[in-house]
């Protein structure tokens, strides 16, 4: 890796128009007052890094469930998956990863398989670190069917600042572990529901790296 690649990460195409808007506002601020203009420069750089999309090295060992998001594990508890996913009314262990506005917000598939369900539900914009955000906030659920037939739901949840959930996949599509499947703009959370009998290998407060950190092992 070259030195400049350590600091300058590629940007996801979803961020281009936002960076352009920030840059135009910054030019206008310079016309008003230089101090405001330099504040705008800082915000434009932040916007660029918010939409950064760095390469990740996903573990290849079979049976691993990988974190779908960068951030901090905020909750681990047994919960019934959202009704719109059409899954049995049985509690599953939910691992919630909270993303701050400084985390990379590109979401990656926890496992390989086929997209069985994509279900969007509008809602509120509560702080995504709160437990009730999983029930009340805007969300988009994706259910991945693995090769052995087991299902793994992962839910994108909008946060206090986030106002737009983007999902790149559709039902019937194949996806590999660690592949990009979505993005949430400006602060949010990802919930992963582990299959029955699968215990998490992470703890609340642990830092996650999307596409790299192991959340659990299917056949442990």
Describe the structure.
Its EC number is 4.1.1.65. The strands form three sheets. This protein has an eight-stranded antiparallel β-sheet with strand order 9-5-6-7-11-3-2-12, with no helix packed on it. It is an alpha+beta fold. The model has no long low-confidence stretch (mean pLDDT 87). The protein is elongated, with a radius of gyration of 18 Å. The protein folds into two domains: 3-50, no CATH class; 64-217, Glucose Permease (Domain IIA), CATH 2.70.70.10. Helix content is 20%, strand content 31%. The relative contact order is 0.21.
Proportion of helical residues: 10-25%
Average pLDDT over all residues: 87
Per CATH, the architecture of the largest domain is Distorted Sandwich
In spatial order, strands of the major sheet run 9-5-6-7-11-3-2-12
Helix and strand pattern: HHHEEEEEHEEEEEEEE
What gross morphology would you assign? elongated
Termini gap: 35 Å
Number of helices: 4
Model regions low in confidence, pLDDT < 50 over at least 5 residues: none
Structural Rg = 18 Å
* Main sheet summary: 8 strands, antiparallel
The share of residues in extended strands comes to 25-35%
**What's the oligomerization state?**
single chain
CATH topology of the largest domain: Glucose Permease (Domain IIA)
Query: In CATH, what is the homologous superfamily of the largest domain?
Result: Glucose Permease (Domain IIA)
Q: How does the helix and strand content classify structurally? A: alpha+beta
| Count of extended strands | 13
Number of separate domains: 2
Subunit structure: Heterodimer of a large membrane-associated beta subunit and a small pyruvoyl-containing alpha subunit.
EC number: 4.1.1.65
Family: Belongs to the phosphatidylserine decarboxylase family. PSD-A subfamily.
Site (Cleavage (non-hydrolytic)): 187-188
